[in-house]
Amino acid sequence: MTTNVSECFNGFLKGARSLPITAMVKYTWFKLNSYFDDRRNKSIAQSNSGQKWTKYALHIFMRNKAKVERHRVTRLSAQQQSYQVDTPHNPESAGHGDHTHGVNLLQRSCTCQKWKLYKIPCSHVIAVCIRYRHDAEQYIDPCYSVDALFRSYAPIFPALKDRLSWPDPEETRRVLPNPRLIREKGRPVSTQIRNEMDESGRRPRTTPWKEGGRKVQCGLCDQKGHNRRTCPKRNEVPTSGGVAD
Fold it and tell me: Is 0.85 topped by the overall pTM?
């Protein structure tokens, strides 16, 4: 339903990222073996203690069961096992309560969709089961059973073969670097496509060629648009401080 499983494996395999390939494979192999062995032993211990459902499922089930105290159940059809459940106003809950839900035990459905999503009876289903003396735990999906947990981690990892027993490769290949991937000297060329959002907020360039930029002012004639070197009156105005003829 989520990426929790992949994130979990990614978390405990962080130490293998910088290892050589052979060491990385061995590290992953033995990490997975320890993971399976630990879960397998825990499932056996839970089964020997008479526990039917996993701790995760029981935690959600008991949390939903604690909400049914103020639920009001109305039976719509005993033959179809169809019921209506009204919840009271609750300002502390996310939805603030005061909702109406339809429960059908034959179709294993509830209009809140939590039963279908989590495969664990929601508080509305548990309220119906308590009101009409049904076993609510029978509606927990078998995937949450301790037996299913044991079967998930039942496979045993075989011992690795010694490197002397590895088959010889049929051919040897020499891996050469791709010359097209070698980084050239200098600063790499930017491939970013700039737009008006990149230009907004930037300070304007102080050049006479950019619109809105600061214009150059001549030091001889005090006119804008050129400097002392390109001034048209350069030969007319003396630069030594004397008076022109």
Answer: no
